[in-house]
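Protocol step 4 of 5: obtain the predicted structure for the target chain.
Materials: sequence only (see below). No template structures provided, no constraints applied. The aim of this step is simply to have a reference model before the mutagenesis design in step 5. Sequence pasted as it appears in the construct record:
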Amino acid sequence: MSIYTKILKDLFQKDLNQEVFEARTRVSLEWYRKKIQTYYGNTSLKLDTKIIPHTPINHINPGWMYSFKYNPKHKDKLPYYDLFPLVLIIKPVPGGFLGLNFHYLRPVDRAFFMDALYKFETPDTRNNTLRINITYNILQSSRRMRFYKACIKRYRYYNIGNFFVPVTPEEWDMALFLPTERFKNETKKDIWEDSRSKY
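Step 4 output (structure tokens):
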């Protein structure tokens, strides 16, 4: 069953909608708490802690998903931005990488998009896991991929903060709907509406 089908099934179960989504959020937040503990121990790290630039990350894997803190270089000129992106890496670029930040999409559109991306899932023999083997040309090739227009972003290593966590394939669905976006300058409702106008 696809992510989108699962969500629709939940949405149209009369009188269970709120209960289902509250339960899903609780499970997701517990997963996120354990994820932080795995990488940072029993820490008081909070989502609104100060972002501290650090040494560039040397080993990112195209086709992998990562959650991290980000402080844009030109944030004063941006209409809005996400402090805690959830990004599928497309490719390295000088000084950083190009990726898809799912937070710029409404949850139901994230599901549509991820279903399309799963078709490009392939074994990653370097790490004995899976990855999404996607390129910019593939993203442009199909209407099912149109969501990329709103969420493709370039990130600089130097502006990544002291929180950078890989999300493994078995955790992708969980992370995709976790409410960890922290938008600045606009509400997420307004940002999602703006995103929809791009695809």
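Step 4 remarks: The helical segments are 3-11, 17-40, 107-118, 136-140, 148-151, 172-176, 188-196. The longest helix spans residues 17-40.
Proceed to step 5.
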